[in-house]
Amino acid sequence: MRGPLAGILLALLAFALFSTHDVVVKSLGGAYAPFQIIFFSVLFSFPISTLVLMRDATAGNLRPVHPRWVIARTMAAITASISAFYAFSVLPLADAYAILFASPLLITVLAIPILGEKVRLRRGIAVIVGLIGIVIVLQPGKEPLTLGHAAALVAAVCGAFSSVVMRRIGSEERAVVLLLYPLMANFLIMGAILPFVYRPMPIMHIGGLALIALLAFTAMSLAIAAYRRAEAALIAPMQYSQILWAILFGALFFDETPTRTTLIGAGVVIASGLYIVFRESRGGASANTPVLRSRNRIGTPAALRIGPILRRLHLNDLRQRGH
After folding, report:
1. pLDDT(159) > 60
2. Quick one: DSSP state of residue 299?
């Protein structure tokens, strides 16, 4: 099967695997610090990641063209990973997703100073409505806000920042630079912290860490295949299918039942995000389409970034066609 329908089905499968990835993270997060989980999941991803990186035949070196932006993006990606892993560990899955779904809204806001994007009235209203949805989920003053809620918000902000920076420098930096720096930084920084938080792990939990890496890579591969078969405007909304998996997995494995308020807030955030995607997909509504160009997924440090790989594959296709 080829064409848009195949892309949509592949995207749905990819996000189902990403949600399964988060279930394993949550299961291990009750016993281990996120630094330890990230370190070993990244370690297990290195063999596959190395093979992917070795296929980049683009001439050049590993020195960034924009070192400050690359460093800023790398640190934001690391912070997003730590925060997302912690949020998944301590929050109900539906709550964590509802907050993380704010990332497209934040991308729209951050694109104004970083990309010079002009946000017109309708998209601006959509952002405001989406942020109201986050307030509905958090219920400040009614429910106690925890460190987990703060971590999810930090993950959404840092993930959005990383995506916008990627949009700014992606066309000038080598794909291998954009892929390798966050991976190596995660490994080195988590490795430096590891001696202070390490807890011995039984073989089953080590297998769980390997499974996190495998799920991340497989989901990333499926997402790449989806984006190559269908327009981003069709694929991007599929990320919201994760709320269904959150409800199902939360009930099956963690005895979680999302509150009505969480579901209402999540619905508002999702509706706002879908509207922004719709507006960006219309010609002339956005000069940079920052949300549609954001293909990375928050909280998967063991997976290589999807955007640079897609760009490299596109360049390879052009070379093969003689352009």
Report:
1. yes
2. T
Amino acid at 186: N
Backbone dihedral angles phi then psi of residue 58, each to the nearest 5 degrees: -65, 130
- Angle of the 147-169 helix axis to the 93-100 helix axis, nearest 10: 40
| Residue 185 C-alpha from the chain's centroid | 17
Question: What is the C-alpha to C-alpha distance for residues 210 and 208, in angstroms, rounded to an integer?
Answer: 5
Chain segment 27-86, per-residue pLDDT in tens: 999 899 999 999 999 999 888 777 766 666 666 667 888 899 999 999 999 999 999 999
Residue with tokens 């959005």: 160
SS3 content of the chain, % helix, strand, coil (to 5): 75, 0, 25
Phi and psi of 140, rounded to 5°? -60, 135
Q: Does residue 276 contact residue 127 with C-beta atoms inside 8 Å?
A: yes
pTM of the model as a whole: 0.90
Give the model's pLDDT for residue 318. Answer: 56
- Rounded Cα distance, 270 and 36, in Å: 32
